[in-house]
Amino acid sequence: MRPTLTVQGDLPILSDDLIKDCLSVLYNCCICTEGVTKSLAAREDFVTFLFTLMSNKKIFLQTATLIEDILSVRKEIIQLEEIPNLASLVQSFNQQQLANFCRILSVTISEPDVGVDDKHTLLARSTQQKTSTCPSRAESNQVTLVNIPGFIERLCKLATRKVTEAADASARLELEDWHSWLDNALVLDALMQLAIEEAEQNALFGLTKHRLPQSMKIVHEINMFIKTNLYHWYQIMLFGQGFLEKMNSIFNVHRMLAEFKLIPGLNNLFDKLIWRRQPSGHVLHRQNQNCDCSPEISFKIQFLRLLQSFSDHHENKYLLLSGQELNELSDIYLNANVFEMEALNNTDRNLVCDGKKGLLTRLISVMKKEPIDSSFRFWQARAVESFLRGTPSYADQVFLLRRGLLEHILYCIIDSGCKSHDVLQSYFDLLGELMKFNIDAFKRFNKYVNTEEKFQMFLTQINSSLVDSNMLVRCIVLSLDRFESQTNDVKVVEVFSECRLLSHMAQVENRLSFLFRLTSIINVQTLTQENVSCLNTSLVILMLARRRDKLPLYLSALREKEYAEKYPGCLLNNFHNLLRFWQHHYLNKDKDSTCLENSSCIPFTYWKETVSVLLGSGRSSRCAIASYIDEAYRDLDRDFLEL
């Protein structure tokens, strides 16, 4: 193929068979000889040229297989905009080819794994953002793909393709029997293509004794079904999740996915294929971890991540419901004499789920049936929690309370014996969103946690890891503050007087205990996206204290605790530095600051004011941290990187 890489006069015409053989030789060399794949991957011109070969339908599979191997070992992501005529190439693919192409594309739009070292800390990310102002190659590739006309629409159609009659027999296969075919899908296609060619050649010469084997036909039919109804969806879920996270603000991919009816399509497939049966046990893989799970498990995780991204802080989240369920939400608002959320009012009912049950209700149903030690619970809880995130909605909460979600979560935390920190964290977060400012939820909590033994078990779970449970602690503190101002509401007063949880948090010493521990378990150099919530929960406790003119009381208590622990200045110096970094991190991020405001119902201006007051330089100020650190122990102005 070398003559085709450089233009030297007339290009020789190469037969498809010759190119196919070349690709086969190269692929086998990659498999059998160490270093060949990396050598080929280093050649930009060769990799780009391979993409152009995909326009030839006869050699598409061989080309796709080789490209996938080569891209998997490249250290640097290929730039899709440099591929000649990429848009017309993609538009020329049939649905089968497009699905295979998505498998290749998933490598080009995913950021490299940051691993488990210091690179994932907020401080490291902040430093990296200062030195790199240009979009990454993965981000540029996302822009390139979204700009291809009709691309998102075709993905939605592919993801929601229904089971065909021809595939009914193969649909009865258990999912666990499919992954062996999935891993060899391209090979099977190539074998089938060869068999068809031989059969056609025999027919041409009148030879009938070499008919296409029936077994080969059945295998191919099964393979086609799998590839179009599971394997391809898995790739698209992986693909779509990246789009939703990265591209919403620029191209409004979210709106396109809604308009092309991705959610009702997935709802129709949920029971038939997506969650037909429970898979065998597996190990939980978090978002930035490599995963060697079977395709079935990976597929389900990506599906749940897609739902999480789709509904997270977005008004289109109501598309996860059916028309009947939307009516139920409206009735809840009406009965509670509360104004209906604008997002609910604006939901296009032509785009919601069909039938009586929407995707959210189906998800809750399978979550309640999931084995208690299944790590699917982590992703299921994350997906449901994303529906509740943002400004608290009374009707959304009641909708889920009616489906027994709160009692199920409490069972998992208190009575199930669940030991997974990840699963427990996801349930603490979900419980916080479900109960925030909702007096009915606290009443239900008290009804389930009806003995001192159960309540102490609940507190033990919370205290076992505040990094995992601090969002729930924040919810309780915020709710307590609101309920204390609703003394004219008979219902609130009644629940307040009976609820163990509210009574516990109402004691100042308990709030101070949480504050001390929350500010002790983090520092600037260990802050990540997962534990920065501990800093924000600490701030919530202090903001509410400031509202009631009790901020000096809390700061004095922290100082006394330092001396009691024989580490004077340690805690307050650390907290001071954390707040300086908070300013650096949040004052430049509109999305993060909006999330803080919406979730707490505290204006972001008050967040900023409180941090400024705490960082005040006037040593006579009773609300400044510096006033509570003795001169000998004060260390407030060092650079973050020197700490």
Summarize the structure in words:
Mean pLDDT is 81; it is low at 114-119, 163-188, 208-212, 214-242 and 285-292. The chain is mostly helical and 643 residues long. It has helices at 16-32, 36-41, 44-53, 60-73, 86-92, 95-108, 122-131, 137-146, 151-159, 168-171, 179-182, 185-204, 214-251, 253-259, 262-274, 295-311, 323-336, 342-345, 359-369, 376-388, 394-401, 405-415, 421-435, 439-448, 452-464, 466-484, 490-498, 500-506, 508-520, 532-547, 551-564, 570-586, 590-600, 604-614. It is 65% helix and 0% strand. The chain starts with 15 loop residues before the first helix and ends in a 29-residue tail after the last helix. It is globular and about 85 Å long. The chain has 34 helices and no strands. The longest helix is centred in the middle third of the chain and has 38 residues, at 214-251.
